[in-house]
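hey
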């Protein structure tokens, strides 16, 4: 009885701490690479993708955002990594300010696949899946900071070694637009 109570309390604690998705997650949610292989098979299917903005262009009634796709977390935030799942174009109704939706910002989109476009990436013809966005979320800029304390948990606060104690972390510059 006591072990069952412990298991239930631990599992509820774990479930309570899981990240709630900011956007609805499509089921199934195929990756960009599989959609690129056969866009017509995925036409009009919902997706939830995330990535890093390459470029934002505005037309009369719609904005177009070119995005490098990344894997997303359970909260639908793109995972910071050098791995890419491909590129896609997100079409958003209305105006998106290119100064805010700028290159390098992380964004997640939920929408439907409406087609494909072929554009050049340098001299390479690249097939972009096109998504009509229903909802999107622009994520805050990630900031690394130096807290002035050592990173090594093994040694106590009175252990002094220059490598462990004075190892600075990089600070990302934040520009306000």
């Amino acid at each position: 009885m006591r072990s069952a109570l412990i298991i239930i309390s631990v599992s509820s604690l774990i479930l309570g701490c899981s990240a709630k998705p900011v956007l609805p997650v499509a089921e199934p949610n195929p990756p960009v690479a599989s959609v690129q292989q056969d866009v017509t098979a995925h036409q009009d299917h919902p997706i939830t993708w995330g990535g890093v903005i390459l470029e934002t262009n505005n037309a009369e009634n719609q904005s177009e955002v070119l995005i490098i796709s990344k894997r997303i977390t359970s909260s639908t935030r793109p995972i910071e990594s050098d791995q890419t799942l491909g590129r896609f174009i997100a079409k958003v109704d209305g105006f998106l300010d290119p100064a805010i939706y700028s290159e390098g910002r992380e964004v997640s989109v939920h929408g439907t696949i409406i087609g494909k476009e072929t554009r050049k990436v340098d001299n390479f013809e690249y097939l972009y899946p096109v998504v009509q966005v229903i909802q999107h979320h622009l994520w805050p800029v990630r900031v690394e900071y130096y807290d002035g304390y050592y990173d090594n948990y093994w040694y106590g606060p009175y252990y002094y070694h220059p490598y462990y104690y004075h190892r600075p972390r990089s600070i990302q510059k934040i520009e306000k637009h």
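The longest helix spans residues 2-17. DSSP finds four helices and five strands in the chain.
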